[in-house]
Amino acid sequence: xxxxxxxxxxxxxxxxxxxxxxxxxxxxxxxxxxxxxxxxxxxxxxxxxxxxxxxxxxxxxxxxxxxxxxxxxxxxxxxxxxxxxxxxxxxxxxxxxxxxxxxxxxxxxxxxxxxxxxxxxxxxxxxxxxxxxxxxxxxxxxxxxxxxxxxxxxxxxxxxxxxxxxxxxxxxxxxxxxxxxxxxxxxxxxxxxxxxxx
Length: 198
Fold this sequence. Notes:
Blueprint: E1 2-8, H1 13-16, H2 30-43, E2 53-57, H3 60-73, E3 77-80, H4 105-113, H5 125-142, E4 145-150, H6 152-162, E5 180-185, E6 191-195
Parallel strand pairs: 1-4, 2-3, 2-4
Antiparallel strand pairs: 1-5, 5-6
Helix pairs in contact: 2-3, 5-6
């Protein structure tokens, strides 16, 4: 059995400002740093002792969260571009409320029913699922148990893909900042969600 432990980054400056960050490189807030330290304490429990390596997004908020966690775990840490958050294109660094504007109603509706719909100058849910899940499969071919520190949208897409085999389920999944989740995989790489937001 393979184990994929996932942690979303701690609260970022964009989270605090209620802005879309996407692939912008924003820092953790002091609260985000504390959330990462809390996650580190959880991960020191013996039930997590099988984690072999930490992989993380190369974006600062995820990398810094992983570094704080690793101060307790003392494992090899590898940042990867493939684990970055979705590229939100023109919506990056914009207030989240911008998508409530009527002029984006068609985009919102299209994205809900067609996971190939890209953000203008950005990526689609299908794009990130392909990028992120391909990297996860590569990582799991090398290890039996890993921790991946990344972002909400890409991690939720991977759960929808690996566990539910249905990208529409992404809208039903919420990941809290610096919470621990676990997906296990059988020999055929069928995923089961064992833990969410611990």
